[in-house]
Design a protein that fits this description.
It is a single chain. The protein is mainly alpha-helical. The chain folds into two domains: 42 residues; 51 residues, no CATH class. 67% of the residues lie in helices and 12% in strands. The chain is built from four helices and two strands, in the order E-E-H-H-H-H. The chain has a two-stranded antiparallel ribbon. Helix 2 runs antiparallel to helix 4 and helix 3 crosses helix 4. The radius of gyration is 17 Å and the shape is flat. Keywords: Oxidoreductase. GO terms for molecular function: succinate-semialdehyde dehydrogenase (NAD+) activity. It comes from Staphylococcus nepalensis. This is Succinate-semialdehyde dehydrogenase (NADP(+)). One of its GO terms (biological process) is gamma-aminobutyric acid catabolic process.
């Protein structure tokens, strides 16, 4: 399979090497996402709320890690990346 290297735009340093996928794998993942959607919509509001709260906590616990990754992948200053993580988390917290 063909591979692509993710580079830090500021340093041109390699961050990760990823493999391209094929149509069959993409279709399989789409089916899995559809199945997850169908089961998620059957979950009651209280349980959904608990899951979203847990997700928000995970984002907060890994805020620095996520911001560093944003900085490496996109070249965004760390302070702005930290703000981007908070902003993204606000969508989970609504």
């Amino acid at each position: 399979m063909t591979k692509v290297e993710v580079l830090n735009p500021a340093t041109n340093e390699g961050i990760e090497t990823l493999e391209y996928t094929n149509e069959a794998t993409v279709n399989k993942q789409i089916e899995k996402a559809q199945d997850a959607f169908l089961s998620w919509r059957e979950v009651d509001a209280h349980t959904r709320s608990e899951k979203l709260w847990a997700w928000s906590k995970l984002i907060d616990e890994h805020k620095e890690e996520l911001a560093e990754l944003i900085t490496k992948e996109g070249g965004k200053p760390l302070k702005e990346a930290l703000g981007a993580v908070d902003y993204a988390r606000s969508y989970v917290d609504w």
